[in-house]
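To close the section, here is one more complete example, presented without commentary so you can practise reading it yourself. The ligand is G3I.
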Amino acid sequence: MTRLLHHAAVAILSLSLTSIALNSVVEESSNTGTLRFAAQTQGIFFGAAVVAQPLKNDARYASALSREFNIVTPEDEMKFGFLRPKRNEFNFSAADSIVNFAFSHSMQTRGHTLVWHQRLPQWLTERHLSPFEVAVILKEHIQTVVGHYRGRIYAWDVVNEAIDDNTKYRSSIWLDALGPGYVSFAFRWAHEADPQAKLFYNDYGGEALGPKSDTIYDMIKTLKARSVPIDGIGLQSHLSADHPPNFASVLANLKRLTALGLEIHITELDVAITMPATAEKLQRQANIYRDYIKTCLAVPNCKAIVMWGATDRYSWVPRFVPGKGAPLLLDDELRPKPAYYAALSELRSGIRFTTTLP
Ligand code: G3I
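Output:
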């Protein structure tokens, strides 16, 4: 009798274990339909900028993020003014909520951004500071923030938009006090605080060959020649469906950046439409996403494609660019757009040889 009970218990246990295993297999295989799964098979990161507020309040948004992407970038929450409302007060709570979300869903995080001319707090901009004070504030900022996230950030946008539209060093509190050397200092200080994190220079308008990408290329070449710890370049890629980039030229740029030994991330991809969005404009947008992903996949050093948002619902574009909108892969209701299907199909085409664990 006891033996019989024992056999029955074992049978019930193994049945329930089988059904748990089957359930997780079913869950896994249903996830093979996502951008995240397709990107993983290519060995690349595919991601989106994230905003902390809806991450907390909008469950559909949070689940779309972890389903479709394997890397996130806090859209605003790691900027200087956001993190450091007072000289001696750091507030990491919103940024932490994004990093913790990413960690708990096996996603990576890109840190954005340590040194920028925008989003600076008033306490920093309103009074005259000596160059020495500026250097002290910058070093303590970089090392406190990078130190806080040590071991948890895959890559940092260390310096953002240091080159202006006339291909000169952009005037900013940093340049004006410290000269162009602030760029090297920033990388060295970040490296000291987290030697494992990959350190990136990030900018817009330098995707294809041209005066701006030439200047960025020369700057990074010089930094590398001086042993500045820089690992990669971020190409923001805020595009318009009205003017597709010249992808042959983007490819040539990616190849010369690769030759410098840089890892390449597409960091802020979106393709704005002149509203209203018609079927024809949405298709044009889809083609641009397809061609950009194809171009990145053609270059082994291109390791991440991050959209500047997951859904049109929370995109910065309609708030900042009058008449433009609908720039992302999911619409206002988080439904996949033609661009989503174009991205999915391109990520599934051919499997890139992977040399490292994604
Ligand atoms: O957080 C406040 C909120 O409390 C307030 O109610 C609201 C009212 O205006 O403002 C909110 O902050 C705004 C925030 O966006 C969230 O909406 C900031 O004022 C506004 O400056 C901020 O804009 C961000 C902008 O960078 C400046 O930091 C955009 O979201 C963000 O998409 C944009 O991102 C930049 C990248 O960092 C660098 N490359 C270009 C890219 C697009 O401009």
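Once you have examined the tokens, check your reading against these statements. The first strand starts at residue 45 and ends at 50. The beta strands are 45-50, 71-74, 108-115, 155-160, 198-203, 232-235, 238-240, 263-274, 302-307, 324-325.
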